[in-house]
Write a structure and sequence with these properties.
2 copies of one chain form a homodimer. By secondary structure, chain A is mainly alpha-helical. Chain A has helices at 8-22, 29-35, 50-73, 78-95, 97-103, 109-113, 117-128, 135-157, 168-184. Chain A has a single domain (8-184), classed as Tetracycline Repressor, domain 2, CATH 1.10.357. The relative contact order of chain A is 0.11. The structure holds a DNA duplex.
Chain lengths: 191, 191
Amino acid sequence: MVRAGLTVARLTQAGAELADEVGFEQVTVSAVARRFDVKVASLYSHLKNSHDLKTRIALLALEELADRGATALAGRAGKDALTAFADVYRDYAHEHPGRYTAARFRLDPEAAAASAGARHAQMMRAILRGYDLTEPDQTHAVRLLGSVFHGYVSLEAAGAFSHSAPDTEESWSRIVDALDALLRNWPAPAL
Amino acid sequence: MVRAGLTVARLTQAGAELADEVGFEQVTVSAVARRFDVKVASLYSHLKNSHDLKTRIALLALEELADRGATALAGRAGKDALTAFADVYRDYAHEHPGRYTAARFRLDPEAAAASAGARHAQMMRAILRGYDLTEPDQTHAVRLLGSVFHGYVSLEAAGAFSHSAPDTEESWSRIVDALDALLRNWPAPAL
DNA sequence: TGCGCACACCTAAGATCTTTAGGCAAATAC
DNA sequence: GTATTTGCCTAAAGATCTTAGGTGTGCGCA
């Protein structure tokens, strides 16, 4: 019989495609096996288990997202950088909804440490260099940016904004504008 | 044999408790049946299917959250209202992680329409009455608030902030302060 | 108080997914 | 060209979901 040429990388890739097509929740070891026209058990020489597959897809998505972020940030600063980076998140989520969901998959500590998570945080800090924030405030701002990007994209994907005007495109750009304004006038700690 | 006294409400409640104990992902029709010491098939006279159960838990969580929000908002305005409402979200997520996850379960349109989603939006609009925003900007601001609350709480729950100082408590209050400042100085549309 | 009916819960069974154990054949190594 | 590695397979057990059809309980009503 002809071998299918399974590798962890190809399985992960296929899982990511599957996620975009049918949703990350529906990604199963069986479904991936079907896609390679191979018996389910065969995947277990490459993957530890189902959770392992999902973790790998999550790590792939985080890498891709970080790569796009890095590209977007190159040669940009200030509001320009902020906008470009924000759009990377939203565009990625639109193009790859399943992968984006995967990127928010709860990773166990070891996986998290090996993930591109740190790169994401560093890029946000790089953006903030264009604004005038003291060190502790920078951390707060990083968390705010992460929250807004992640929150907006999630809610939009969940359809939370889909039943009200105006369109989400406009809200997005107005919100990014607002964040820029906020970062330029970050308030001092309350008394 | 003694009847267990199954009702949709009790099943939903049990599912919600289970979600908080072992995570929303682990909530299964079988697990709920086990909790009532009843055969799995028995639940299918009360529930349409597994998805139905999850939807009901999600609706329950959204109601509870809206109730708490309404209580918090009573007699408050401005920043006071904003802070109280924000804390409702975060506290609920801490107290009931499984339910909070459930609240973000993707609802089909009919379920969404019957959900407390509209109450949430209305409460946010009520908060914004304490700030001076024109109508379209109010919508953008509602979306921003939703994004930040949801995003922050999700990322915190996912452990995204757990490996860096300062503590998440402080970031949270500084971020709410920042939102207040932003709402008081909402920028005009970019040219 | 007793009768009948509705329905609450059950048994049975098929389908899908996960995971492990052990086997055969194809690729690779010498 | 043989030997070894290893990729993929068969087999099997356990879990979940879901449907179909059966039985006894408890309530409404006479």
